[in-house]
Specification:
Layout lengths: L5 E12 L2 E12 L3 E5 L6 H9 L6 E6 L9 H4 L2 E4 L11 H13 L12 H7 L15 H13 L5 E5 L7 H17 L3 E5 L3 H7 L2 E6 L2 E6 L1 H9 L2 E7 L2 E7 L2 H12 L3 E7 L3 H13 L6
Parallel strand pairs: 3-7, 3-8, 5-6, 6-7
Antiparallel strand pairs: 1-2, 1-4, 8-9, 10-11, 10-12
Helix pairs in contact: 3-4, 8-10
GO cellular component, one term: plasma membrane
InterPro entries: AAA+_ATPase, ABC_transporter-like_ATP-bd, ABC_transporter-like_CS, ABC_transporter_ATP-binding, P-loop_NTPase
GO molecular function: ATP binding; ATP hydrolysis activity
């Protein structure tokens, strides 16, 4: 459950490579138990932002705090509280799935305290990511989708307080993706894990995220819930209905009030009513087009 305690605090983050600025004064926060989706086109700065927060990349300027610690100067105890799922990794091919997770769990056990939970039981973790049938298989024999599930398991071994997921469901089939979504929602709800997610799957972001931050050209161009962004950026809902044999379509901002007025005026004469709210995809595409056209984001 989301609380008011700030877990990720980014203020004025800048990153420069040579003479090129790739992040410009990026500022946002995430709270305890919140799922935050970081969206944007390729090259927007999403992975660079996450790598700074993970402590893998030194920033050029700005202030960053994760669990009250600057990642640039964090120690091993801090790292035991953070989980990372990279876009891909290809080590440990000779290990077996359960064997690797048990081995990694030993490192987290060294840091277990009242504040830092014990690592996941390997069998429970294997089941949580849907790899029970492959628990004794060598990693090099896993399919691409199975390997991606293992990537997620590796990020979860230490029961992290903050979990970074960079394109986590790449290669997942629809069933595996749905199971993963349930896992992420459970982590946030039951264990109050704060999750920072990057994805190009806008449906995934809409299903998982409590809040969405959109990066474009290294700048934050939108920040809010999917509904807030839809109202502010995409703007209008589509209402379709039939009356007196005529099919009608209207685009309106206040669809609930519009539909109420329709029934007040026409009652049972209204049939085949459909209300299509602006989706995150509609909102995102509208926003990116506005930014590319030089318009101000909401």
């Amino acid at each position: 459950m989301t609380s008011e305690r700030v877990v990720l605090d980014v203020d004025g983050l800048r990153m420069r490579y040579g003479t090129t600025d790739v992040l410009h004064d990026v500022t946002f926060q995430a709270r305890h138990g919140e799922v935050l989706a970081l969206l944007g086109p390729n090259g927007a700065g999403k992975t660079t932002t996450i790598e700074v927060l993970e402590g893998f990349r030194m920033r050029s300027a700005g202030r960053v705090s994760v669990l009250g610690v600057d990642p640039a100067h964090a120690g091993e105890e801090w790292r035991a509280r953070v989980g990372v799922v990279l876009q891909s990794w290809r080590d440990h091919g000779k290990w077996r799935v359960r064997e690797l997770l048990r081995h990694l769990g030993v490192y987290f056990s060294c840091y277990a305290t009242d504040r830092i939970a014990r690592p996941w039981d390997p069998d429970d973790l294997v089941a949580a990511v849907g790899l029970t049938s492959r628990a004794n298989a060598k990693i090099r024999t896993l399919s691409g989708g199975q390997r991606r599930r293992l990537d997620v398991a590796v990020g979860l071994v230490g029961r992290p307080e903050v979990l970074f997921l960079d394109e986590p469901t790449t290669g997942f089939d629809p069933v595996a993706r749905r199971e993963f979504h349930e896992l992420v929602r459970g982590l946030a709800a039951r264990e109050s894990t704060t999750v920072l997610l990057t994805t190009h799957d806008l449906d995934e972001a809409e299903k998982l995220a409590d809040r969405i931050v959109v990066l474009d050209g290294g700048r934050i161009v939108a920040d809010g819930t999917a509904d807030e962004l839809a109202r502010r950026i995409a703007g209008e809902d589509e209402v379709r209905w039939t009356h007196a044999g005529q099919r009608h379509v209207r685009h309106v901002r206040a669809s609930t009030e519009f539909v109420h007025d329709l029934f007040r005026r026409h009652g049972d004469g209204i049939t085949e009513l459909e209300v299509r709210r602006a989706s995150l995809e509609d909102t995102y595409l509208s926003l990116v087009r506005r930014v590319e056209a030089g318009g101000a984001a909401g």
